[in-house]
Amino acid sequence: MKYIEQEIVLKKMNVRNLINSLFKGIFLMAVVITLLALLILLYRIGSQGYTHLSMDFLTNFASRFPAQAGIKAALVGSLWLMAIVAPTSLILGVGSAIYLEEYAKKNKITDFIRVNISNLAGVPSIVFGLLGLTIFVRALSLGTSILAAGFTMSLLILPVIIVASQEAIRSVPGELRDASYGMGATKWQTILKIILPAAIPGILTGAILALSRAIGETAPLIVIGVPIIIQFLPSGVMDTFTALPMQIYDWSSRPQQEFQAVAAAGIIVLMAVLLFMNSIAVLIRNKYHKRY
Known about the structure:
By secondary structure, this protein is mainly α. The protein is built from eleven helices and no strands. It has helices at residues 2-49, 55-59, 72-103, 108-120, 125-139, 146-170, 174-182, 187-216, 219-224, 244-252, 257-291. Helix 3 (72-103) crosses helix 10 (244-252), helix 4 (108-120) crosses helix 6 (146-170) and helix 8 (187-216) packs antiparallel against helix 11. The radius of gyration is 25 Å and the shape is globular.
């Protein structure tokens, strides 16, 4: 009888090990397929675009001749755009998260607001483009300026930053709050000196993802009427501009094969800007992560 029970236990363990190996293989295959697709994409972009990467490409304006086409206006325009989007979205997003988590009463109204903020994170970007066209371009008469586009993109990524900031603030241990209050600190002092520094790694993780989405979006810019090609640099937030995604979209949609390689070079520049922005955020996040 004891021998039979041991056989049954052994069979169950074998079945469990088999199931574990099966799911391990499935997950490994998912990682391999993802990395393979990424490597193919990077190879294709790099092999096509490296021939056009030069200082002339970075310092020339757009042209109808592929050999003379440059990305200067789009690159500067994207940097201007991010200079508006980053502070606007972070201040509004983190501020909203602090209010909802630390000040707002827990009732049906705040629950309704939280649910709708989460739902807004999945709304297509073109809808935010229509919202920006209605409010900023027409109602506030900002036109196709950097300010109008920056506010539109800020609305696009605001729900993501709010949700990420809420989760980061919520994950701060309650003992830290209690210790701060026990030392006589006010609520705002506790938020500023204890909660925010401890939550910065999580907040910046959400901000990295959100800003990465903003710098690569094209649909909202098309809807609000941002031009594809300009031959000047903006000198202020009320000037018309173009952006890297718009310029890449224009090159990739042209029938000439040479412009496909130019578009690939533009994608490499866009990825470099994105990696630079993310690197700064990651360094800040790691600094506070080690401290807390």
